[in-house]
Amino acid sequence: MTLELGLMLAGMLGIGFLAQWLAWRVKLPAILFLLLAGILLGPVSGVLEPDKLLGPLLFPTVSLAVAVILFEGSLSLRFHELPEIGKAVRGLVSYGAIAALLLLALAARLVAGVSWEVALLFGALTCVTGPTVIAPMLRTLRPNARIANTLRWEGIVIDPIGALFAVLVYEAIVSHQEGRTIGVFLATVACGTAVGALFALMLGFMLRRQRIPEYLQNYGVLAMVLLAFSLSNTITHESGLLAVTIMGIALGNMRGVHVDDILDFKENLTTLLVSSLFILLAARLHWPLPDGMLWAGIAIFLASQVLIRPLTVLIASIGSGLAWRERALIAWVAPRGIVAASVSALFALRLETLHVAGANALVPLVFILIIGTVVLQSATARPLAKWLKVAEPEPRGVLVFGSDEVARAIAQALHEVGFTVVVADDEWEGIRLARMDGLRTFYGNPASSHAERHLDLTGVGRLLAMSTHRERNSLACVHYRQEFGREKVYRLRNLPPEQSNGRAALPGSLLAPPLFAEDMTHARFAGLLSQGWRIKSTRLSATFDWPHFIEQYGSDTVPLFGVDEKGGLRIATARHPLDPRPGWTVIALVPPDESQAAA
Q: Where does the pLDDT of residue 83 fall: very low under 50, low under 70, confident under 90, or very high at 90 and above?
């Protein structure tokens, strides 16, 4: 049974949204729910038949969507970050990735019996992880910082590198299948590289010189990406994917070109494309699978999980300084993601038209590996981390949204008493000063899609929204309420209580508990600091308790935080004022002494 084209496309968007929302709620990679939705709509129920639904538009639609996905992934690769990511990550994304490619290809050849061409393409597609599957897994896994950074950077860096591997292998297969010489293959690679670099230079020049108005930049970049893809394919057959990959890498590494807003737009667009594309591609799977393909896929998945990944990590981490327990967990966690699923389906469509032997096995093998790694590792990684004793305890750190004088002073006070603190803001001057103070920082909006990929929240479990932007504070609170829990998200008022009512009031669903005293606002806090007030940290004892502290520093003292005997952070709010006890460390805003006041 097929439905009307418009209704089916709208239904796919709705189901894709539900799958993404469900993944957000349960903190699992969205790709799992998208693939399962496609399988239920396609092979199981027969409601969605992509080939009949789109007809001759299927291949061009999938091709253009994959081009945008590859461009977005390659745009995030920064060459200047490679020396800083550690020896283990450099090994995993270089010779480790090549080793994984060859071993996975060997497994596909021996177990599934596919041709060497398809086996090598399978290895190139599945040797990569990705930030879209690693990030949600790390949130529930919560390993120590060295493991989290290794896995996170591996996913970010290897995503575009893996795409480049897959495109080059695919170009070689097509050239061989169509009887082309090595010269034609090299010409294809050269054409894709040249077109991608040329379009990147053109676009970079226009963006750097501000020849494109800001409201048209995203539109212009999308048009240039699709034009580069189509033009490169027209000049030299099948070179378009390489062109957009090179274009993204080149544009992302140009000096003076700010691509953060473009990257945010592309990430949002990619979410839309991925949600629809994966449902569409999973619906094309034929059930039952070709003879023996299900068991072959499971066998390859097991070989990847217990042999290939551990061996790759062992080779790549030699001399890295990682402990064997950390290597063991890294060897267990390697979920496959967007590049493997989307590009494999596109390549399979093309290889089937070229009558490449075993091309129909490519997508089932890739999808089985994706589902197997995501399901198994999501269920077992956290218990394994606890057993290996490399899991972080309950996160005690603090994410501070804001980088002005108030936010930096509070962040510095928490940092000095031993808490992990990350200062996040999209105002560069404040971030620069926070870095000079020795604080960890994130330059960008912590509620953005970019932050989901790059903001390291290892050990962080609370949000203090203290920026000067009232609405952004509220959005950050809503965003991190699901991440940390409703009771661990706070805000510093931007308006006094009497001005926050009536026309200026925000809906209650956007509000979090206000920090400190009922009448404390950001402006008042900043004013007190400018008058010489300072943040004071003191450990209380039986002989110097809280009443003694008030007696020494004055009744105007504003309690901010308390650190109890077990190291837990207590936050002062209007509803829950602090009751500091002996043995606590109290952090308070105290007035200047008489000499300071006179000065």
A: low
Asked if residues 234 and 186 have their Cβ atoms less than 8 Å apart, the reply is: no
Contact indicator for 266, 71 with CB cutoff of 8 Å: yes
Q: What is the pTM of this model?
A: 0.66
Q: Cβ distance 388 to 332 under 8 Å?
A: no
- Per-position DSSP letters for 32-88, written without gaps between them: HHHHHHHHIIIIIT----HHHHHGGGHHHHHHHHHHHHHHHHHHT--GGGGGGS-HH
Report which secondary-structure segment, H or E, holds 266.
helix 260-283
In whole angstroms, give the CA distance from residue 404 to residue 412: 12
- Pairwise CA distance, residues 396 & 460, whole Å: 6
Greatest alpha-carbon span in the chain? 90
Domains of the chain, first to last: 5-388 (1.20.1530.20), 397-598 (3.40.50.720)
As a whole number of angstroms, the distance between CA 102 and CA 351 comes to: 20
Pairing, β 421-425 against β 397-401: parallel
CA distance 283 to 37: 8
Integer angstrom CA distances of residue 269 from 74, 306, 459, 563, 572: 15, 36, 31, 44, 41
Please tell me whether residue 586 adopts helix, strand or coil conformation.
strand
- Please state the φ and ψ torsions of residue 335, each to the nearest 5 degrees: -70, 145
For residues 158 and 97, the answer to whether their CB atoms sit within 8 Å is: yes
Residue 146 CB: number of other CB atoms within 10 A? 18
Q: What is the pLDDT of residues 444-489, one digit of tens each?
A: 888 876 777 677 777 788 899 988 888 888 888 888 887 787 788 8
What CA–CA distances, in Å, run from 330 to 35, 92, 194, 376?
A: 25, 11, 37, 14
